[in-house]
Amino acid sequence: MSEREHHAAGSEARRTLPGRTWRPDEQQRQDMLMRYLGAVAATSAARAAERPQTFGEPEPQSAPLEHPRPEGPSAAQQPVREVMDVPAVSVPDTMPFLDIARTLSRLHLSSAPVVDADDHVLGVVSESDLLAKAAVEATEQHSGPIGRLREHRLYDKAQGETASTLMTAPAISVHPGTPVADAAWLAARSRLKRLPVTDHKGRLVGVVRRIALLQALIRDDAKIREEIESRIIEHEFRLDRGAVGVHVTNGVVDVEGRLDRSLIPQLLEEIGEIGDVVGVVDHVTAI
């Protein structure tokens, strides 16, 4: 199956997911998500290749310490400090349940870091934590016996009254100098939409959203096209831009024009190897 066919098949499969309404912007949203996951997967593979695997070694629970930035950093090496939100919204560890709910609702947030008096991040309180608390208060008895340890813990935590007793701890956080790709890998693995950003003493300095990581990792179609035309067509193949037509839509590159038969495979391969390119469609006529 070609890359274009694979992309089309994936798109069709997503359209036919049961119980979901396909919104007008859903195709673009799904394509952006696939490009994001591809960047995350590439980062994960690179990290695995850089360190020896020790069986039985536990997975790290936080992002690595700050990395030195090489000359001419790529988007993946861009530090979190350049895409994080400052100041960060947080709640004090003593804030009561109802005040937390009002804060998240007013600011349209799904979660917020919990901090102590010195701004050290203690954990994160989320809508899920509040929902469990609300469920406990809404009923006097369970619908059945609780058999799993996780549910016991959830019920016990839901009886808390303040942020420090309702939060999930420890918080999964990153540092300001953590590369965007590493933060994206951590957010994807942890299924988090927002990551607290802390300094070397664990104090809150910002929050980075998953959408900000996505936007930092993925170049838009215009920039992809510019790289194809300037670096590949003009510099490597030494052709006029007008000799080859390039159209990019959500990372899929359509190539058209008339070109020497021997050059076509190499051109398509070079384009396909560009980061953020989802697929390449060959409309080139061989001469």
UniProtKB/TrEMBL annotation:
Keyword presence, Cell membrane: no
CDD domains according to UniProt: CBS_pair_BON_assoc
Comp. bias regions, Basic and acidic residues: 1-15
Annotated ranges, domain CBS: 84-140, 167-223
Entries under InterPro entries matching the protein: CBS_dom (IPR000644), CBS_dom_sf (IPR046342), Diverse_CBS-Domain (IPR051257)
Keywords tagged on the record: CBS domain
Protein name: CBS domain-containing protein
Organism of derivation: Streptomyces humicola
SUPFAM superfamilies associated with the record: CBS-domain pair
Start and end residues of each stretch annotated as Disordered: 1-79
